[in-house]
Write a structure and sequence with these properties.
six-stranded parallel β-sheet; 15 strands; globular; alpha/beta; 18 helices; nine-stranded mixed β-sheet; Rossmann fold; Dihydrodipicolinate Reductase, domain 2
Length: 438
């Protein structure tokens, strides 16, 4: 990402502070009884590293208040409360007595939405609780870890009518949205195949700390063998391939390598006698999943989070007229690329097919999280809350990204057998029209 998102630029382009209207396609903001723009009232559950980052981004939005925060870590909670006060708002009420304190926050009548940024096993129960209490749920990735949790989210949304959006920020990346426009304008022809990956060495800062102690995600490496973190890989791919709106995942197979990287890391860093060097981990180092859609497309998804490597997503989307390769930052398009079977740079296409969401922000300064993607996904979420409309990523796309976790686990456990993918839309994918970033 080369361009950030700045509050100053947004405010410059919207004297009324109507950020969502500036971002193309937003409906007029709801007005209060007094005739002004009605503030959106947001609670945040989980204000550790990720939650604090999201909170900081939210505090840059005009006409938004944070009446309540929840975290059982009282230090994190106090720091977040101070951050809200420094932004000029009243001190939010804090909830920290026990692990179920989030239910008291979500029962409040002065919240419109809740942002959930907690450890994974809390995502579904918290999002379900938010919807049952009439609050829009903005839940961090992944939104669910099992088939049962995926269906809980879908069923609760359909019962309550309250939207639930997984906060998959890579769906909002500037380059990915430009590629989406190219696909929708037919430059790649009919889409046939895609490859994507989450290749990010997370051993020494996410699964474990620098001293070799377990952090909360470490238990997943001990207990499970699956693609633990697929949503950054497949986030942009759903819209590229019209998944859930014209096509749908049909079957998936998954294959895992042996587990070598974690033990090797501990042995070379802390010595062969360190407990981490001897412990048995269920999680294979590389998981390769292959999905076939009902429309005959294929999608390869790689999990790669335990071996030494620079960060990489390796998106490649291929159609009957050409392809885009993120790793090369290049395209080849039949009838358009100047040289036969020769790559050309993606940068000119990025400019030509800039998505209106990013066009509105291209001269902005600053970076409010992941090159501005956090700012963009949150402002679109808040727009939906304010206008009482559907979120840009709906519950069906949210669980479709997340269900790769249990699908891969089941396939690996069954000797890499094909597993039927659930249809969370209950057949509506056949008639649903593309809605994301249209």
């Amino acid at each position: 990402m080369t361009r950030g998102v700045g509050r100053r630029q947004f405010l410059k382009t919207s004297a009324a502070g109507a950020l969502g209207t500036m971002l193309a396609g937003a409906a007029p903001q709801a007005a209060s009884a007094e005739g002004g723009v009605k503030p959106v009232r947001v609670g945040v559950v989980g204000v550790g590293g990720r939650g604090t980052g999201l909170l900081g981004t939210l505090l840059h939005f005009p006409n938004l208040t944070v009446p309540a925060l929840c975290d059982i870590n009282i230090t994190n909670l106090a720091n977040a409360q101070q951050r809200v006060e420094k932004a000029g708002q009243p001190k939010p009420e804090g909830y920290s007595k026990h692990e179920e304190s989030f239910r008291d926050l979500m029962a409040r009548d002065d919240l419109d939405a809740v942002i959930i940024a907690t450890p994974w096993h809390w995502h579904t129960p918290m999002a379900v609780c938010a919807m049952e209490n009439g609050k829009y749920a903005g839940v961090e990735v992944p939104c669910a870890m099992s088939f049962e949790e995926c269906w809980q989210l879908v069923d609760t949304h359909e019962k309550t009518g309250v939207p639930c959006m997984m906060l998959e920020n890579w769906s909002f990346r500037r380059d990915n949205l430009a590629v989406l426009r190219m696909i929708r304008q037919g430059l790649l022809g009919e889409i046939v195949h895609c490859h994507c990956a989450h290749s990010h060495d997370c051993i020494d800062h996410w699964f474990f700390d620098r001293q070799g102690n377990d952090r909360w995600p470490a238990e997943y490496l001990v207990k499970y063998n699956r693609d633990q973190y697929p949503t950054h890989s497949v986030g942009p791919v759903l819209s590229w391939m019209d998944i859930n709106c014209g096509d749908c995942f049909a079957t998936m197979t998954a294959t895992a390598t042996g587990s070598r990287g974690i033990n090797a890391y501990f042995a070379r860093t802390f010595g062969e006698d360190h407990p981490g060097a001897k412990r048995q981990y269920a999680q294979g180092d590389i998981v390769t999943s292959v999905i076939k859609t009902h429309g005959g497309k294929t999608l390869v998804v790689n999990y790669d989070m335990q071996l030494p490597r620079p960060y990489d997503n390796r998106w490649l989307i291929q159609g009957t007229l050409g392809l885009y390769d993120e790793a090369r930052a290049a395209v080849y398009l039949t009838g358009r690329s100047p040289e036969y079977h020769q790559w050309e740079p993606f940068a000119p296409y990025q400019e030509e097919f800039e998505h209106p969401w990013w066009e509105a922000m291209k001269d902005a300064k600053g970076d409010f999280g992941h090159g501005g993607t956090d700012y963009l996904e949150l402002i679109k979420f808040i727009d939906a809350v304010r206008n009482k409309t559907q979120t840009p990523i709906d519950v069906y796309d949210s669980v479709t990204m997340s269900v790769i976790i249990p699908l891969s686990e089941k396939s690996i456990a069954n000797g890499n057998a094909p597993i039927e993918c659930p249809d969370f839309t209950r057949g509506k994918w056949k008639t649903r029209k593309p809605a994301f970033a249209v």
